[in-house]
Design brief:
The complex is a heterodimer. By secondary structure, chain A is mainly alpha-helical. Chain A has ten helices and no strands. Chain B has two domains: 5-214, P-loop containing nucleotide triphosphate hydrolases (Rossmann fold); 219-284. Helices cover 28% and strands 28% of the residues of chain B. Chain B has a six-stranded mixed sheet with strand order 6-7-8-3-9-10, with helices on both faces. The two termini of chain B are 27 Å apart. The chains are: A mainly alpha, B alpha/beta.
């Protein structure tokens, strides 16, 4: 297992004791968005990942895991990449389960949903997730969860939703742009990881706090 | 790089904000020994440990750690165990989870040893981290360090919240750890009594500087405490009174042993404790100056 994969596993273990909170958020999302099966996956992904992907930062802040990260035998960049890998894993799990649920709900409601529409919605989900995380994570790494908890989790969500609303996106309007949307979201995500690595490196160089005992 | 040294700091300077800095910090620990890092709160002990671990970049000088120049390869941290006065782990993890979390990071992780140590320490595997007392938390972190077979243990104020029994137990644990000649310990504390039993070397820090470093016995032999009446320590020629304290009923100071004979019979001359040396040297140590200033008391 690579250092990044081990750090992603550490994020999973970090939030594991609080899995019922995560399941609650997921269940709430399912209940809220079940009436619109076509938009179910992007909505669920955005809501769930915006809450759960940054959750390791919250637990780490309270438990002082920065010290653990510093003493573990992994390169520092693996700590940052591990957070991003964890977020991708959460996205993949949410998108997979969400798609299955969306297909089921669509069948029950007799709504046509499949083929290109599914691909379109998954691409949109990826883009919403990537942009949200791309904004959240550098802020969380730079300032810590405690200092940006509301800003870091709500502001990107509001920004992404606002942009989507203003663009009056429809399934048909998106389909010709799918490859570009997917690649652009990937580019934003990778750029965010690079920025976060630089931010984290700067923070390490200058120490995490001013304690001098 | 020397394989005979657990670590060495050479001329290390590191600014921490605008008001504090390590200045020209130099000391070293031979492999197989315990060093006490003594200083008041805010003296720079934690900053030194952070620099050793590569958690903070240094501005000047160099640090050697287990034969590597810091920052060395990340695998170097396989050989280092860090013990604070609290566990830097998720409070809701059970101790079985702690093993599950840490094992993938340490190829030499010995699960049987982990469980054996927790059993010896009287800690339940099913307990949660947040349910442990400070002493138990410290023992958990020691168990973790010994389970991944660290060669160097760094303790940062581990005894500050412990009762005397727990502190005595810690001394025993460190003694057992040192039965392997390749093992070493750096022990930061402001409770100097902890070092009376286990310390081989001592480094005194004050205001970000090393004011004295060396073998504990040499440092104890190098000074004498002198006590006398309010006027007895005045007007002495050829004797430097280190950190002299005057009260209405008496006076006390530290002097170099070779100068103690010059005092005559009018004052009481005694062997000092580490605490007395730390207090008097700390009291006379200069205030911070730019990074290039000297270090020796």
């Amino acid at each position: 297992m690579t250092a990044t994969a081990r750090m992603a596993m550490l994020d999973l273990r970090t939030v594991a004791p609080y899995r019922y909170y995560g399941l609650g958020v997921f269940a709430l999302g399912v209940l809220v968005f079940a009436s619109k099966p076509i938009w179910f996956v992007p909505a669920l992904v955005l809501m769930f990942t915006a809450q759960i992907a940054p959750y390791p930062f919250s637990v780490a802040d309270k438990a002082g895991l920065e010290t653990l990260y510093a003493v573990l035998p992994v390169p520092r960049r693996a700590v940052v990449y591990g957070h991003y890998a964890w977020a991708v894993a959460i996205f993949l799990a949410t998108a997979t389960v969400g798609t299955g649920l969306a297909l089921l709900i669509a069948r029950i409601q007799d709504v046509p949903f499949g083929g290109r529409v599914v691909v379109t919605m998954l691409t949109l989900s990826w883009a919403l997730f990537a942009i949200n995380v791309a904004i959240q994570f550098p802020l969380l790494i730079r300032f810590g969860y405690t200092r940006v908890s509301v800003l870091g989790t709500s502001m990107p969500l509001a920004l992404v939703l606002g942009v989507v609303y203003r663009m009056r996106i429809t399934v048909a309007s998106m389909q010709s742009w799918l490859p570009l949307i997917g690649v652009a979201a990937l580019a934003v995500f990778v750029a965010s990881a690079a920025v976060a690595t630089a931010v984290d490196g700067r923070r390490v160089r200058h120490g995490w706090n001013r304690r001098t005992d | 790089m020397s394989s005979d040294l657990a670590f060495a700091l050479r001329g290390v300077g590191a600014a921490v904000g605008r008001k504090f800095a390590l200045r020209d910090v130099s000391f070293e620990l031979p492999t197989g020994y315990v060093m006490g890092l003594i200083g008041a709160n805010g003296a720079g002990k934690t900053t030194i440990i952070r620099c050793l671990l590569g958690m903070r970049e240094i501005d000047t000088g160099e640090i050697e750690l287990l034969g590597h120049r810091v920052p060395g390869p990340s695998d170097l941290r396989q050989d280092i165990g860090v013990v604070l006065d609290h566990a830097f782990l998720v409070g809701d993890w059970r101790l079985t989870d702690v093993e599950r979390v840490l094992r993938p990071f340490y190829p030499r992780w010995d699960g049987a040893r982990y469980r054996q140590l927790l059993d010896e320490f009287g800690i339940e595997l099913r307990a949660k981290v947040k349910e442990l007392s400070r002493g138990m938390s410290m023992k958990l972190m020691i168990a973790v360090a010994l389970s991944h077979q660290a060669r160097l243990l760094l303790f940062d104020e581990p005894t500050s919240g412990l009762d005397p029994v727990a502190r005595d137990e810690l001394a025993g644990i460190i003694g057992d750890f040192l039965t392997d000649e390749g093992h070493s310990v750096l022990f930061s504390t402001h409770i100097t009594a902890d070092l009376d039993r286990i310390g081989d070397y001592v480094t005194l820090v004050h205001n970000g500087r090393v004011v004295r470093t060396g073998a504990k016995d040499e440092i104890l032999d190098a000074y004498r405490v002198v006590r006398g009446g309010p006027e007895d320590l005045g007007g002495l020629v050829g004797v430097e009174l280190i950190g002299a304290r005057h009260t209405s009923t008496g006076a006390q100071a530290l002097v170099r042993t070779e100068e103690a004979d010059l005092l005559g019979g009018r004052v009481l001359v005694e062997a000092p404790t580490l605490e007395e040396i730390a207090v008097h040297i700390g009291a006379r140590a200069p205030h911070p100056k730019p990074l290039s200033t000297g270090r020796t008391a």
